[in-house]
Structure formats: structure tokens, C-alpha cells
Design a protein that fits this description.
Blueprint lengths: L17 H5 L5 E3 L1 E2 L4 E2 L9 E3 H13 L27 H16 L5 E12 L2 E10 L3 E9 L6
Antiparallel strand pairs: 1-4, 2-3, 5-6, 6-7
Length: 154
């Protein structure tokens, strides 16, 4: 807005540069041991960082293993609602659609993720193994997670 358009021509307005605000920092997380559910340490016994898609995989793991709305430490956007289908008797196709919806809602609020696609569901006893493709601002990778249904899918 220039001074001639303002009702207060003596006040100067600075235009904001939106390009600088839109640029994301490189994603960074502490390295994580998924099998032992703990942080990894380097040779000197210190925790270390991983970046980009390696960091995004850790963030996805945390979100998909955290129940939404149950922890005061997290915002309402963090976590997922997969536990809401546990204990319900659902047709496997309906359960898979719900799982896909919960995963999509949980992950798509991350600015580093552009798209989730190629969802594949495999029923294994009382668990559903979910595989999907994550397209991030860095690259594309495959991700796998397990949703425990407790004998509720049929």
C-alpha cells in the first residue's frame, strides 16, 4: 500500500516479504532406535541428529504411535485416532478406510509432507500392516506401520 492509498498518508507501511516466511528450515530430529524405542548414541555416547527424510520418518513414527487428545504435552494436531477403531467389529474394508483417513489426518498437517499415496493394507491375525508412500519436500519414500486391532477386523 503506498501513501496515496492510505487514509493516513503520513504513516508509512512496510510490505512484508512472504517468501522468507514460507521457506522451511531443514527438518532435524534426534536419531532414534525404533526397535528398542530409545534415542541412538554415537561412538562417544552422545545423542546425535538426523536430517531431512530420516528426521521425517522419526516424526511420522512418533505421530502414529501417539494417541491424539490424550497428552497435554502435545497440541490437538499431534497424534492419531487409530485406537478409536480398536474394540469395534468392523468390516476389514471399512476399517482400512478409517485407518487411511486417520493416518492422512495425522500426517498431512506437517508442512514437510506434500502427499501420501499408494496405501496398501495387509491383515495379519489381529493386526493391520499399512504401507504407503510419503512424498516430502525432499524426496519420496515408503513407510510401514502396524495398527493393532485386537481381533476386531472381520
Amino acid at each position: 500500500m503506498n501513501d496515496e492509498e492510505s487514509i493516513f498518508p503520513f504513516i508509512e507501511f512496510e510490505e512484508e516479504d512472504d517468501e522468507e516466511e514460507d521457506e522451511l528450515e531443514e527438518l532435524c530430529e534426534y536419531a532414534y532406535d525404533f526397535e528398542n524405542n530409545c534415542l541412538l548414541k554415537n561412538e562417544s555416547g552422545q545423542n546425535y541428529f538426523v536430517y531431512r527424510n530420516d528426521a521425517l520418518k522419526i516424526w511420522i513414527y512418533k505421530v502414529l504411535n501417539t494417541s491424539r487428545y490424550h497428552h497435554l504435552a502435545y497440541t490437538e494436531e499431534f497424534g492419531n485416532e487409530n485406537e478409536t477403531i480398536i474394540g469395534q467389529t468392523l468390516d476389514i474394508d471399512i476399517a482400512c478406510l478409517e485407518i487411511k483417513r486417520f493416518i492422512t489426518e495425522a500426517l498431512m498437517n506437517n508442512d514437510y509432507i506434500n502427499e501420501l499415496s499408494n496405501f496398501n493394507f495387509e491383515l495379519n491375525n489381529d493386526k493391520v500392516i499399512v504401507r504407503f508412500t510419503v512424498t516430502s519436500i525432499y524426496d519420496e519414500f515408503e513407510y510401514e506401520t502396524v495398527v493393532d486391532g485386537g481381533d476386531t477386523y472381520g
